[in-house]
Amino acid sequence: MKYAILLGCAIASFVVFSAKASDIKFEGDIRFRYHIEDDSQAVDLKHMLRIQAKLGVKVKINNQVDAGLCLASGNNATSANYTLGNGWGRVDLGIDQAYLKYTPSQLNGLLNVTAGKIKYPWWTPGNTELVWDGDVRPEGLNVTLNHKANAFTLFSNLGGFVIDSNNPTAADELLGAIQLGASCRVGVLDIKGAAAFYGYGGTSVKYRILNAGVEITTEVSDELTAGVLVDLATNTEGGDYGVLAGVIVKGSKWKGHANYRLSEEYSVYDDYNDSTFAGGSSDSRGVEVGFGYEILEYTFINLSVFVCEKDQSKDTKRNVSIVQLDARVKF
User: Fold this and answer.
1) 277 phi and psi, to 5 degrees?
2) Per-residue pLDDT, 11
3) Residue 314 burial (CB count, 10 A)
4) 258-273, pLDDT tens digit by residue?
5) Torsions phi, psi of 13, nearest 5?
6) Is the dihedral of CA 251, 254, 258, 263 positive or negative?
């Protein structure tokens, strides 16, 4: 791991010092979290202090090629959290993103190709996490198309990704994904929706997931936007399904959301769905409520509450409630 980080830093240094200052953008965030968890099968409440740190650089190599590198705490595919109380040992730090992005200038932004370890490219309504946790970083290649046609903006993603190619006694685990979507304005309503197919190969359970979502928002006033959203997923291999429905509100310095979700055991690939809701279990249902406020410039506090039933289809089902209070800065 340390050699990978050193290599990443060396590549980033070479790219940064080879580029003009105006073509370089540094960004990052640091988050401190107080996490309380009440599991009906546990003896006591669980209290945890957690941190998350990310530091990245984006460099415009020329008018068609961009490069990006981001380092992050943690070593989990769906979380950059580090739980404090590990004997004051050092925090794991790894490559969160490392990619090249090609945008042909002759196509005026219509198409871009991104290769490497990337931020997940698929649109989800309200950034909800029924199918994909926000910290997932797929590894492979993705092609994005964007096109404005009259009142509609059309977009699509087509990608191929490697999940596991390091097991000599088993077939490689792979993901092929395609998403088609559009957005438009109808009267006072902004509408955006998309449909996707995710096909996994080499996994112990067959997953052929159809996913569709829609988000509808409107400006209630100059400083208030409100909306509703729905996200649906079903695994065509067996018929398990998941559904999430919710509301979102947003002001100039604050935002809030509430949603209900139900997810059957094999409706989504549960290595990569929301890692917090029911502890990442796909066989779950419950409610999520959240509120965030920008108390100072680039400084935020967030409160999230999850009330879930985990393993809801089994005799071992149990209730899990989670409260998270965050302080976060972005730069």
Assistant:
1) -60, 115
2) 53
3) 10
4) 999 999 999 999 999 9
5) -65, -45
6) positive
pLDDT of residue 167: 87
CA 43, 75, 99 angle in degrees (round to 5)?
Answer: 150
Question: For 144-173, what is the mean pLDDT?
Answer: 94
Output the six-digit token pair for 290: 């959240």
At a CB cut-off of 8 Å and minimum separation 6, what does 328 contact?
A: 29, 30, 31, 32, 299, 300, 301, 302
- What DSSP designation does 267 have? S
Least Cα distance to 236 among 264, 204, 208, 266 occurs for 208
* Measured CA distances, 42 to 46, 232, 283 (Å): 9, 32, 19
The CA distance from 40 to 45, in Å, is 9
In this prediction, residue 52 carries a pLDDT of 98
pTM of the model: 0.91
Q: Residues 67, 68, 69, 70: what is their CA dihedral angle, to the nearest 10 degrees?
A: 180
End-to-end alpha carbon distance in the chain:
26
Q: Which of the 8 DSSP states describes residue 129? A: -
What is residue 94's predicted lDDT score, i.e. its pLDDT?
95
d(CA 113, CA 187): 34
Q: Is 295 exposed, middle or buried (0-12, 13-18, 19+ CB in 10 A)?
A: exposed
Query: How wide is the angle at C-alpha 271 spanned by C-alphas 266 and 274, nearest 5°?
Result: 90
Task: Compute the CA torsion angle 162, 55, 80, 133 (nearest 10 deg).
Answer: -60
Two tokens, residue 115: 């290769």
Q: Check: CB of residue 290 under 8 Å from CB of residue 257.
A: yes
Q: Which CATH class is domain 98-330?
A: mainly beta
